[in-house]
Amino acid sequence: MKPAQLIAPLFLAALMAAAAPAMAQNAGQIANVRAGASCPRCNLFQADLSGLALKGKNLAGARLRQADLSLAEMNRTSFAGGDLRDVNFYGGVFGGANFAGANLTNASFVGAYLEGAGFRGATLTGVNLSGAEMDRATGLTQAQLNSACGDGSTQLPRGLSVRPCR
Predict the structure, then answer these.
(1) How many domains does the chain have?
(2) Domain for residue 114, yes or no?
């Protein structure tokens, strides 16, 4: 091969490497969580944890972006300070869970049970709370809920409201 013919493939390979995600998921950490371990500050990006029963564990500061926690049962689990953007919490049970300081941007809590869950300082921009049962959730403010949406079946603490989802 001539040197000029080598440049294009090398350039393409370098370009692809630069475009690769800097923080791909960690399969070992995901397996540990599926087995029931706590895993604070773990990289669980796009993890499928749907249907998992994991009560009272520590996932504080973990990166769960785009993870699937639908139908999971994670009562009293700490997600405090975590990256939970775009997470699917559909129909999950998260009673007493700690979401304080977590980034929940664009997460879906459709039909989730969130009684006693804590949301102090959590980012709720674009969060769908349709059908969520959270009338005893703590740390929620109207300012947080102004950037979220829900529906007529969303149960919020007394005095708080959420706009309808479109």
Answers:
(1) 1
(2) yes
